[in-house]
Each structure stands twice: as C-alpha cells, then as structure tokens.
Amino acid sequence: MHQKRKHLKISAVWLMIALLLAQFGFAAPAAPPTPGPDEVIINGQIVKKASIKPELNIMGNMQIPTYSGGQEVVLNIPVENTSIHQAVNAYVELQLTSGANAPFEIQQLKLREKVPFIYPNSVGYATFRFKVKADAKDGSYALPVKIKYGNMYNYNEFESTDTVYVQVKNTILNPDLIVNDISVGSGEVEAGSSSKLTVNLLNQGQNIASNVRVTLEGFKNEEIMPNSSQGTNATVSTLNNINPGASKEATFGIEVNDKLTSGNYKLNLKINYQDISGREQEQIQEITIPVVENQKNASLTITDLVYPTDNLRRDKAVDIGFKLNNHSEFKLYDVKISLEKDPAIVMKSQPIIKYDSFYGYYAEDIKFSVAPSDMAVGQSYPVTIKVEYKTDKWSDKVFTYEKYISLLVSKKPDTTKLPKTKLIVSNYSYESDYVEAGKPFDLNVTLQNTNASRGVRNVKVSISSQDGIFAPVGSSNTFYFNSMKARGTSDLTLTLKSKIGAEQKSYNVFVDMEYEDYEGKEYTSKETIGVAVVQDTRLNIGELEIPSDGTIGQQVDLNLPFYNFGKTILRNLIVKVEGDFTTDTRETYYGNFSPGSEESFSAMISPMNEGENKGKIVFNFEDAMGKTQNIEKEFSMTAMAMPEIEMPAEGEFPMGPDMGPMEPEGGNKGFVKWIVIGAGVIAIVVVIVVVKKKRKKKREEFLAQEDDEE
Hints:
Number of helices: 2
CATH topology of the domain at 174-298: Immunoglobulin-like
Mean pLDDT: 81
Structural class: mainly beta
Shape: rod-shaped
Distance between the termini: 70 Å
Strand order of the largest sheet: 4-11-10-6-8
CATH architecture of the domain at 174-298: Sandwich
Number of strands: 46
Largest sheet: 5 strands, mixed
C-alpha cells in the first residue's frame, strides 16, 4: 500500500509537469529526416541530388535575326530555365556546318559559350560570333544548339538540344560591267578603211565577274561590218575574270563603208559573265563609232583633243579642249562649234562658239566646260563635238565635221541595293558573373556598325531596364556619338545600381539606338542584354547560452539561436558542434533556411579535460550562387574534476522490507519532497519561457531596425 501511494505521488508530479508544458506551448519535437551525403530534403521528402534536373531550352519567343552576305554576326541566344531548380555551368554549343557550300565561316574550333548559372524561371544569354559568307544564298537556315548543364549540386549530367533559325538576305552588290572607254585607230575611222576597235570594260561592282565574254553585234552592210584583218577576232573577245574596280580591254576588227559621211554610228556590245554565285548574267550596251569622210573632202579637223577619262563626280566641272584646224588654203565662213550630249551632262561654259570667218591654214584652241548633273547614272555618256561651216559665204550649203568622245560618270550609290546600316551590341561586361542587390556596378557596352561600307552619324543611345530595376548613378542614361565609321565600334560605360529589394534573378537591360546614314535616312535598333542580381547572404548568430564552468563528465545544456536576416534562402543548412567536448547531438540538419526565419541549435555537452575546454559551433550552408559557406562561433568552458564521493559503510542506511532504504517516519515528508521537486521543474519551465520571450522581442527590434535602414 505504501509503495502504491509512492507511485501515485510520482505520477501526479509528472502529470502536473506535462500540463504546464502544454500550457506554455511546448511539445516534443519530431526528429527531422536525415539525408545521406548524396541526398537532399525537398518539401519534406528525401530526394537524390542527381535526380534534380533543371529544364533548359531556347526561349520560345526569340525573334528570327536577319543577316547580310559578308556580315560579321553577333548572335545572342536566350536560354530559358522553365523549372524550379537552378542550373549551373550551362555550356551552350552552336553547331554550324562547314564546307564550300556552307553559308557561314567558322573562325574557331568550337562555338561554345558558358553561362555560369540560370535561376528558376529566368533567362541566360550565350553570345556567338561568326561571319556570313559573301556568296551565301538567300533563305532561312536552321542552326542546331546543344546545351550541357548541371544542377546546383554539381551533377553535370544533363543535356538538351534545340534549334535556332536565322534569315539570310544577301544584299552584296553583283559585278557591274560598264564601257569605260572606246578607241579606234587615231580616234576616228575614215570612210572606206578598216580599223582596230578597243573597248575598255570596268567592273564597278563589289564582286568579281568571271568568264567574261564580249560580243560585238548590230552590223549593217551599208555602214560598218566585222573585219579580221587587224589580227583580232572580229566579233567575240574573251576576258576571263575582272576583279572589282579593275578593267580589261576587248578588241575587235571593223570595216567602214567608203560612202559614209562624217558622223557617229551605233553598234551593240553583248557582255556575258558569271557572278559570285555562279549565275549567268548578261548586259547589252550601245557604243558609238566615230566616222569621218574621206580626207579629200574634209576641210576642218580636230586635233590635240584632251578630255577626262577617269570617273566624273556629279556637279564638278571638267574641260574638253582641242585644236580646230583648217587644212585648206581657202577661207571658210559661218563656223559654229557645239556639243551634242545627253541632258544628264550639263554645260558649265558657253554652249556654242562661232566664227564669222576662218582663214586657210589657220588653227584655233577651243575649250568647253561640262559637268554630270545629279540625274546622271553610273555609265559612259557619248558626247559629239560638232563643227559646221560654209565654203561660200552666200551659199546655203552647210558642211559638217564631227568628233566623238565619251565621258564616264561614277556610279551613284543605290541605297536600295546596299546593305542597311545597323548598330548592334557586339560585347558587354560587368564586374563578375552577377551583381549584388543595392550595390553600384559598372556596365561596359561596345556598339558596332555592322555595315562594311557605310558610316552613320548622330548616334543616340539610351539604356533602360526591365521593371526599372536598375537606376544610373551619377550620370544620365543617354549617350551621344557624332558618328561611327563603317565596321567601327564605340565603347560606353554606365554606373548602375539595382533596387535593394530586387528579387534574385536575371534582369533584361535594354539598349535603344537612334541614328541616321549620310543620306539622312533615320534608323532605330534595340538590343537586350542580361544582368544577374543576387541578394546578400546574412546569417545572424545570437548569444550563446552555456555555463562558464562545469565538471568533467557532467552534461550541461548548450543553446545558440540564429536568424536569417537576408533576402535569400540558405540551402542545406547544417549546424554542428566541435571541440573538447562529448555531446549527445553532434550536428543538426535544418534544410532550407528561409528569409526571416529563426531557429536555435541545442545540445547537451560534457567537457573532457580539466581546465579550459575550447569548442566551436559551425554553420555550413550553400548560398544563392551554390557556393558552400562556413560560419563559426567559438566558446570555452573551465572544467574541474568530478569530486570523489565517500560511500557510507554497509548497514548505515536502514533497509526496508523491499531491501531499499527505509523511508523516515511520517509518510507526508516524502510527499513534501516530491512537491519541492515539481516546483523546481516548474521554475525551470518559467525561466525558459521568459528567456524565449525576451529573445523574440530582441529579434523583432532588430528586424524593425533593418527595415528602417532600408
């Protein structure tokens, strides 16, 4: 009966303790699952690290870029992570085909770029540079892309493939052959004679003309016929290849009917060649053969003729000079000298020169000034020097003498065929692979004019960002350049700072460009670059609760609170105790430690050495970039040896009937003893509650101070 009453007393005490613990919200914590070294806890479940697979693909709304033949290409490929897992070390490989028929020139062994990390539901960019061949055919081309990457636990075993499409519109100018000059004999062919005809062909295009064949056509029996007596092919001349800007001569033999009067007579030149893509091209141009009557009938002639044979610039005057000779002994009357020409060639001097009389065996220097007008195109223009006169002052019969020349006008730029001017972002960089939220950084941008032959001017560049996440520091976000030459580059640097509370991910920065070409045509273009923002990692460690003194082998309670004051998750957090102590809890796994969370590490430790015992609590976790970090909290305790307890001699404790120590008389004394024990436990619980409330209040005050600072 006495023993039963004793057990009832004990049960009552523990019942009171349980009720008090429940009253203050304490419950026995469930043991957390413990992952293995190759495992991690996600949503309360243990998952193999190797099975966590991010999903990387080319962003679906990527615009199809358009390139020109001969263009140096900068291709930005947006790689999108559509999963909830971070991808690291993404190697993006652009698989271009090579060979003679391939449209692209590959200038390195592998087109492979590394994107260090791509956050969940974010985009990273891989930039590639290659060249479109000058003879690339128009069309759409599919470019295979292979992506190899790993997860944040360094399992680099994932791979995906995708396709990027690009458009090629080859605006490179084809070869363009024109008649640069024509010459026959001494400058003209006398009626009834044969002569060698030389035609100079100029390639004023931008590509080579291959297998050039020139055919002389348009012969008439009563005028001019082919003749091979001059040691040349009468109708066909083969010139093989003519490079851009170069010229070659085709030669023919001709014969003039003896009854022709002085004048210019027409023939046709058919020019066949192959362009850079091997396509057959054909041009037909009209040429003029200057013919003079038999010298026995001529009285006035032109000698010492001087005129420009190089390309003429529009609205720039040039001189045509010569000597007019009267080879007869007779005086001539009403002499008139003029020029017959195309309206595209305008006079810059007196258009007609007149003499009332022109003495025998007399010569006069004559000069006219002309210039191509703006309506002139790039070709050879025939000009006829016409001389009219009378042998009898009172007669109505007028004699005519003509001399033919040609003036070559430079080709007017055809902006509809030239590749358009385009500015792109050829390169950009900032301090590292990412920037920290709220901290300034320098963004370096290189702009390039991709046009190979045309510059631009009045360039205005404005930089903005997605959702206004970045703001310029100490300067405007707009830049101005007077001009950029063909294939030229310009660099700019802008200091930016993101919002302090920016979400951790990659943000788009937009580069808007406005400019014009030298014909005054305005253009705009827009480029997008990516900047990754990360939040600062802030693990705050509270005050360590541990006695300063202890006894070897005797356990004491260690308690250390900690808080996540940052704005990013601390992943795979493990807290462990090390040092000159034995413990029942060597380490505790907390998993993912969210922003604003608080926890505490508790363990029962026992000092092992007499005197000072040193230890430390180590926090190990992975930050937002997947890098492992360690934070240590050191502590020490002075321990003394366990005192020796002198055991009573046998028989000093009275023994009861159950062979245990006899309870003193008066059973109520034992009950009082248990009440005292229970009260002590209650006091401990009250102390713990008070400490916990103080700690919570201290943390709330700290967080409020943090918010005020932000």
